[in-house]
Design a protein that fits this description.
single chain; 290 residues; Rossmann fold; 8-stranded mixed β-sheet; 8 strands; binds S-adenosylmethionine; Putative tRNA (cytidine(32)/guanosine(34)-2'-O)-methyltransferase; EC 2.1.1.205
């Protein structure tokens, strides 16, 4: 698919390049912020961005938070530097990541965000399972890193048992909402949990030795479930991310529209090796065919 046809197919992909964001995901955080006011701090804040590469959420943070804020971003993949952001290469499922975060955050976080996603297989049950394991790791890191009253935002796949997940989150946050930004394709099972006012229960102290898990047994032995409020975020008149749009004549800066290159190509995407292998295989087949 050429650059122009992708521009046409996805208004947020085009807008991201025009506004200098590394990925269209930036609009998901911006639209979540429109509804939940997550980034309005009157004094410098500490924010942790988990699974942050290529870095568009960190770019939103660095453009929005008050001067002097501390932003720590980490991902399995290396990230190209962003001014005002500490970028780390680490695995959120590994215990060594928590001390690394503490060392760079230099205090408790006001907000932890996680847009983490595994490489999806297309097998929905498996994808949901891996996604919820990733979310569980993010939640355990957030429980250790957040100050009481802080917020946590994370990507979820809305599967059959998502209500168990909401129940677990409600054990440690006063309000849990399931939010779907306009820029997240309606056809995708992706949504975001917005967890406000971190309130660890009395007598419980977070730690990776005894992490939270998804089993929330009630006294009757059944697993607790919770239906979270569902909120659509962002201007409903804004571009539909599932639609193919007519290309505008001019870019947002008023100049004649032309397709522009992505702001920051991925540094080491997981698909790179697969492409190299396919190319090598292709040339091998061509050589045999000669
Ligand atoms: N929010 C990012 C942005 O705006 O640029 C996009 C994040 S991308 C959708 C998902 C990221 O999750 C990938 O970069 C992937 O490397 C990362 N990821 C997946 N599993 C991870 C893990 N165990 N630890 C750290 N990062 C992980």
């Amino acid at each position: 698919m050429g650059k122009s046809s992708k521009d046409k197919r996805d208004a947020y992909y085009r807008l991201a390049k025009e506004q200098g964001y590394r990925a269209r995901s930036a609009y998901k955080l911006l639209q979540l912020n429109e509804t939940f006011n997550l980034l309005s701090f009157s004094t410098p804040a500490r924010v942790l961005d988990l699974c942050a590469a290529p870095g568009s959420w960190s770019q939103v943070l660095s453009r929005t938070l008050p001067p002097g804020s501390k932003i720590v971003a980490l991902d399995l993949q290396p990230m190209t530097a962003i001014a005002g952001v500490v970028t780390l290469q680490a695995d959120i499922t590994h215990p060594s990541t928590l001390p690394l975060i503490a060392q760079h955050l230099e205090g408790k976080a006001d907000l932890v965000i996680c847009d983490g996603a595994p490489d999806v297989t297309g097998l929905h049950d498996l994808d949901e399972y891996v996604q919820s394991s990733l979310l569980l790791s993010a939640l355990n890191l957030a429980a250790c890193a957040l100050r009481p009253g802080g917020s946590f935002v994370a990507k979820v796949f809305r599967g059959r048992d998502v209500d168990v997940l909401f129940a677990q989150l409600r054990c440690v946050f006063e309000r849990v909402t399931c939010a779907k930004p306009r820029s997240s394709r309606a056809s995708s099972i992706e949504a975001f949990v917005v967890c406000e006012r971190y309130a660890p229960p009395d007598g419980w102290s977070p730690g990776l030795e005894k992490p939270l898990d998804w089993g929330v047994p009630t006294h009757g032995g059944a697993v607790a479930r919770e239906v979270a409020a569902f909120v659509a975020c962002g201007d409903l008149e804004a571009a539909d991310s599932d639609a193919t749009s007519r290309l505008p004549e001019v870019n947002v800066d008023g100049r004649k529209r032309e397709s522009i290159d992505p702001v920051q190509p991925p540094t080491a995407p997981p698909y790179k090796r697969a492409v190299e292998m396919r190319k090598a295989l292709g040339s091998g087949v061509a050589a045999v065919g000669k």
